[in-house]
Amino acid sequence: MDPMGQLVARLVPLLLLLLPEQGAEACGTSRCCFQDPPYPDADSGSPPDSASGPRDLSCYRLFDAGFECSWEYDGPAAGVSHFLRCCLKSGRCCYFAAGSATKLQFSDQDGISVLHTVTLWVESWVTNRTEKSPEITLNLYNSVKYDPPPSGDIKVSMSAGQLLMEWETPARQDGAELQFRHRTPGSPWKLGNCQHQDDAAFGENNGESCLCPLEIDTAQEFQLRRRQRPRPGASASPWSSWSRPVCVPPGTLPQPEVKFLVEPLASNGTRQVTLQMQRPQLQLPEGCRGPKSGAEVTYHLHLHMLSCPCKAQATKTMRFRKTLHLSGAAYDLAVFSCNRFGPGPNQSLHIPADTYTEPRALNISVRTSGTTMHWPAQASGLTYCIEWQPQGQDGSTANCTLTTPKDQDPTGMVTHHWSQASGAMQQTTCYHIIVFASSRPEKPNSWYTLLSAYHFGGNASVAGIPQDVLVSKGGLDFVSVDWKPSPLSTCPGVLKEYVIRCQNKDSNQVSELSVNSTETQVILRGCLGAGANYSVQVRADTATMKGAWSQPRHFHMEIQVFQLSILSIVLISLGSFLSILLLGALVYLSLNRAFRHLCPPLPTPRASTAVEFPGSQGKQAWQWTSPADFLEEEEEEEEALVVTMPWDKGEGPDLDTSGPLKDKMELPPGVPEPALDTELPLEDSRQVQGYGYPEAGALGPSEQDSLECSPAQAAGLPLLLKGLMQSPRPSGPQHVGLEV
Questions:
Q1: Hey, which of 34, 331, 472, 718 would disulfide with 351, CB 3.0 to 4.6 Å?
Q2: Three-state SS at 178
Q3: Strand ranges (E), 357-482
Q4: For the chain, first and last CA: distance in Å?
């Protein structure tokens, strides 16, 4: 060996010895510092099993990013400085200052051998105390940390009652070992291992998968991680970090409960449908409570327009909304829940077609060339759908056609023509015709009802002839005409009126009468003559044409003969009875008045002033000192006539009446005033003395009546006023004594 070669051989070991010293001089950079740590007493740390300090140190190689060491630290983070220590196989050691971080990245150019085995640990210095983690020995290049599964690319599906998660394998990270952890709302994490990955099975697709348990009634949160599959005789590689949460809804979705309310068809041809749904509350784990976590349940509507089957698009699926504006057509509506597994159970609703029809006749003309229909045009560019079907059908037999007018009609009308060969509305029956319009016919919810009315197809003039016309004689001068309703009456808005024709067969005079379409009877009066022959016919008219006459019905009007009707007999009998009652009342009143004149009643002290006393005597106070006074009066020779009148209590004569008694005495007309000294005849005197009249106080009711019936005798009595006797009993009868 030449001297130069020997010199180089001697300098190489020296240079190798000097390299760590050069690294130590660069402690201020990111390289590993081969000097003593900047804290005293590095060996005074806590034992490895201490409750505080660094732990779980893991160092590994990153793909395309150098190397990395990470660890956990238990204890207060304030004032802590972490140092990553590394000892090479040669026994020389260095450190990296990480500060308060628990993760450190470096490269193979930072003074650490990555191809040979090294020993690593962490020392944490805090408040003059050093804490040390357990040491790990490994080959940094062979210890590789894989990336976690890409969360955004994980596909979740169900397979045989389990969850199947699939994703693409990260580049150059084949043959990984997989783990997952999962939790439900309010529960801790549970760890699980995925099945062994078969490279042959996933080689073509370059993907990985994991089977996980499925919860039927609750949502779950999953996280996945990967690591390099351990090689024989080599230490296990570190696990990757956990992936982002993968949220999974329950295996069984609740069925929504939906109610709907349909409003009447508005003037714009649409009706509002209001949907009311009570959404079930779903509990979610902590990591799945975001707006787009994947565990949320959404609700959708599937709309199917049943009417107008010839349109291009009949269905549409949309997000659930509370209100819909639909035409008057029939719809099927399905409300269903949906999650990341797909649609769940649905609730089907049927919205029937609106039954409102316009009470008008359509502008339809039928000729030998076909049928033509006209209606008012709307905005330009609209597509019209004309649907017709026999009345009363459920829509399954509906026919329709689409038309899109290219040019605007100058009359503002849209015209559509059906040829005779098409057979459209040729059947003699009632058709329900609906015209829909839309500016976007591909959307079922964009149609609106333009018009809805009825039309009687075929030869309506002949088909609408009223049947079973019947003429009934109701009296001497009128008849009743009845008929069955026309078939046109079953088609709403088609029949306008009935016309009744009456013809005099003798004079050929014709008269016509119109009645409403709801009438089936009419009375013919005033136009019929006695002894004439007539015929009656009925026809049914529409708004656009006149109907055909029914078969004539003939009848003859009889000559009028006076006959007493039952009503006349009743009136005559009632008049006779009333006349007899009136005549009897008049006779009774006349006889009663004549009896009063023939036998007038006697005057009474209350009703007559025939006997009154002078004022001086009326005011005289009569007093008797003893019962003997009464006896002396009774023993007098002259008999006294006493008239006893039963007065009620408090109704006696007023003795205090002023004025002379003579002025108040009245006699019946034609009777002369009697003289005081006139003597009575013998017969009258006897009656006074006891034969005809009793003594004072002895007259009974029958005897008083006899006095009343002898006015001549009473008027001829010469009355001499001897005195007035007054009964001492206040409530008994009072006596007036007249002495003869």
A1: 331
A2: strand
A3: 363-367, 370-376, 383-390, 399-403, 413-419, 430-438, 448-456, 470-473, 478-482
A4: 216
Q: Does residue 95 surpass a pLDDT of 90?
A: yes
Full strand arrangement of the beta sheet holding 363-367: 363-367, 370-376, 413-419
Structural contact between residues 740 and 639, judged by C-beta atoms closer than 8 angstroms: yes
- ∠ CA 190-196-202 to the nearest 5 degrees? 120
Residue 723 tokens, joined: 């005195």
DSSP string of 115-132? SSEEEEEEEEEETTEEEE
Which of 213-217, 366-370, 564-568, 605-609 shows the lowest mean pLDDT across its residues? Answer: 605-609
Q: How many angstroms separate the CA atoms of 79 and 96, rounded?
A: 17
Q: How far is residue 211's CA from residue 180's CA, in Å, rounded to a whole number?
A: 10
Closest of 175, 176, 157 to residue 166, by C-alpha: 157
> Tokens 């089957």 correspond to what residue?
309
Mean predicted confidence (pLDDT) in 709-737: 39
Name the residue with tokens 């006696």: 652
What are the two backbone dihedrals, phi and then psi, of residue 630, each rounded to the nearest 5 degrees? -70, -35
Q: Look up residue 526 and give its two tokens.
A: 């005033």
CA distance 561 to 533: 18
Query: What one-character DSSP code corresponds to residue 487?
Result: G
Residues in the chain: 740
User: Residue 32's closest CA among 94, 88, 108?
Assistant: 94
Span 99-108, pLDDT tens digits: 999 999 999 8
Give the list of residues 6+ apart from residue 112 with CB closer than 8 angstroms, or none.
32, 67, 86, 88, 94, 106, 118, 140
Provide the Cα torsion 141, 143, 147, 148; round to 10°.
180
Residues 6 or more apart whose Cβ sits within 8 Å of residue 587: none
SS3 category, 19: helix
List the beta strands (DSSP E) in 632-714.
Answer: 640-645
The residues, any chain, with a CB within 8 Å of residue 88's CB and separated by 6 or more, are: 112, 113, 116, 118
Three-state DSSP class for residue 485: coil
Question: Tokens representing 730?
Answer: 């206040």
Asked if residue 123 has pLDDT above 70, the reply is yes
SS3 string, 199-239, reads HHHHHCCCEEEEEECCCCCCCEEEEEEEEECCCCCCCCCCC
User: Could you give the dihedral angle defined by the CA atoms of residues 686, 688, 690 and 696, in that order, rounded to the nearest 10 degrees?
Assistant: -170
* CB of 239 closer than 8 Å to CB of 283: no
Report the alpha-carbon distance of residue 341 to residue 250 in Å, rounded: 10
> What gap in Å lies between CA 32 and CA 111, rounded to an integer?
6
Structural Rg of the chain based on CA atoms: 67
Q: Which amino acid is at 256?
A: P
In this structure, are residues 722 and 696 in contact, taking their beta carbons and an 8 Å threshold?
Answer: no
Neighbours of 606 (CB within 10 A): 11
Alpha-carbon distance of 409 to 233, in angstroms, equals 92
CA 663 to centroid of chain Cα atoms: 98
Other beta carbons less than 10 A from residue 602's beta carbon = 16
For the cut 50, the answer to whether the pLDDT of residue 709 exceeds it is no
pLDDT of residue 555 exceeding 80 = yes
CB atoms within 10 A of CB 496: 19
What does each C-alpha distance from 330 to 71, 334, 354, 447, 450 come to in angstroms?
68, 14, 7, 12, 15
Q: Is 691 left (phi over 0), alpha (psi -120 to 50) or beta?
A: alpha
CA distances from 529 to 462, 502, 552, 558, 564 (A): 32, 12, 19, 9, 21
Where does 297-377 show beta strands of DSSP type E? 298-305, 315-319, 323-326, 331-339, 342-351, 363-367, 370-376
CA-nearest of 163, 177, 245 to 212 is 163
Which of 21, 412, 424, 340 is CA-nearest to residue 163?
340
Distance CA 162, CA 177 (A): 20
Check: pTM over 0.70? Answer yes or no. Answer: no
